[in-house]
Automatic annotation (TrEMBL):
Domain of life: Bacteria
PANTHER family reported in the protein's UniProt record: 2-DEOXYGLUCOSE-6-PHOSPHATE PHOSPHATASE 2 (PTHR18901), PSEUDOURIDINE-5'-PHOSPHATASE (PTHR18901:SF38)
InterPro entries, alphabetized: HAD-like_sf, HAD-SF_hydro_IA, HAD_2, HAD_sf, PGP-like_dom2
Gene3D superfamilies: HAD superfamily/HAD-like, Putative phosphatase, domain 2
The name this protein goes by in its record: Haloacid dehalogenase superfamily, subfamily IA, variant 3 with third motif having DD or ED
Length: 219
């Protein structure tokens, strides 16, 4: 029986991936490092700290990780203020259908909690969700299962009775490790990630509802 649906945020609910990619690339250029766009896809679904610690070591960046994270956040926030936050097409009606069916919902995102609350408030969907958890709040970030196990526990749901909505290789691997069913969202606007561990892969949310998610539990 379906007990809960757990959403990633970036790239699933809000279309923030372009802002992440641009801010990462822009900050690296300040250190004289040029990267291809595809380079940054490997960090989708990871925490900011893990990403910048890895890039600091790889490119020998002369700045503390905390400073790199903050400088990237400043750039990204400026870009988002200039262009505005946009929801992934079809996801808010999907969330609304689940909520109307009485399915408990959570957001389990690697982004900081303050960014999660800022985004759901901007999109006016805060009341749909019963729980929010950030990668900062668990011992091990995605692709470890911690974040989805935490979300399931706080919704009083068994992981095997939860459906996760994810768009990244790390996120899908995290859901798989947690024992959850997973809908892998493949955004046609981006090069495809490896979502092979997902229970099913979709390219839009138009046909998804509580019945669809419930059927996945028995697969």
């Amino acid at each position: 029986m379906l007990e809960a649906v757990l959403f990633d945020m970036d790239g699933v609910i809000i279309d923030t991936e372009p802002f992440f990619l641009r801010s990462e690339s822009m900050l690296l250029k300040e250190f004289g490092v040029d990267t291809e766009l595809e380079y940054h896809f490997r960090y989708q679904g990871t925490t900011h700290e893990y990403m910048w610690e890895t890039m600091k070591n790889e490119f020998d960046l002369d700045a503390p990780v905390a400073e790199l994270v903050e400088r990237a956040n400043v750039i990204r926030n400026r870009l988002m203020e200039e262009d505005g936050l946009q929801a992934i097409p079809g996801v808010i009606p999907f969330i609304s259908r689940l909520h109307a069916a009485g399915i408990p919902l959570a957001i389990a995102s690697s982004s900081p909690l303050k960014d999660i609350h800022k985004a759901v408030k901007a999109l006016e969907i805060e009341t749909y969700f019963s729980y929010f958890v950030s990668g900062e709040s668990v011992a091990h970030p995605k692709p470890a299962p911690d974040i989805f196990l935490d979300a399931a526990a706080n919704l009083n749901a068994k992981p095997e009775n939860c459906v996760v909505i994810e768009d990244s290789r790390n996120g899908v691997a995290s859901a798989h490790a947690a024992g959850c069913k997973c809908i892998g969202f493949r955004n046609p606007a981006f090069p495809p990630q490896d979502l092979s561990l997902a229970t099913v892969i979709v390219t839009d949310f138009s046909g998804l509802d509580a019945a669809y998610c419930s059927a996945l539990i028995d697969r």
